[in-house]
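Justification of computing resources. Each target in the renewal requires a structure prediction run like the one illustrated here; the chain below, 208 residues long, is used simply to show the kind of job we budget for.
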Amino acid sequence: MRAPDTGPGRAATGLPRAVWAAFAVALTLAASACASSPWERAVTTWSRTERAYVNFETRAILHASLRSAPFRAAWVDAYAQAFALTPTQRDQLAAVEAEAAAGRVTVLAGFYTAEPRWNSLNPADGLWEVRLETDRGDLAHPVAVRRLDTSNPVWATLLPWLDPFSVLYELQFEAATLGPGDHDRLERPLSLVIAGAAARLRVTWQTP
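Resulting structure tokens:
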């Protein structure tokens, strides 16, 4: 019996190597899709990254996740799974999240600056202009800027973009300042702007 053709361009089965290569890529993508959790998909959907350079030097890096209604729902489920919450505890957490979000638009921002002394988003320090913008030109400045404790492992566990060099902030904005529309479900595009003498960064969330 004649052995299968395994010459150039063919695998041991006799099929062209290009066919097997395409098949292998398809299997890899399928495996990745199956392995991706709802939380990982939520982080990918609602997170943005921007870098600012001056003369090829990295001045600042911004990672930002918009805590939209879908993001919060996935967050609650991921948190409940990580901490083995009971169904009752999970529902209580969801209620707390919903209450905290009422009338607010919240962004989790990981911020790196080349000089650590630049890394303060507190408006009182006057280092950065921080605002949300709509595509209509409506502006909102944060009503609360909270620096989060990244020694708590929950942040590194649930935010894959968080690195040891960034400071993690929670930025809260009044939704009413951004004009009409359900901003919690991103009925209109929103942009986060962080600008100062050292760098300017902008990330935008488009409507789903």
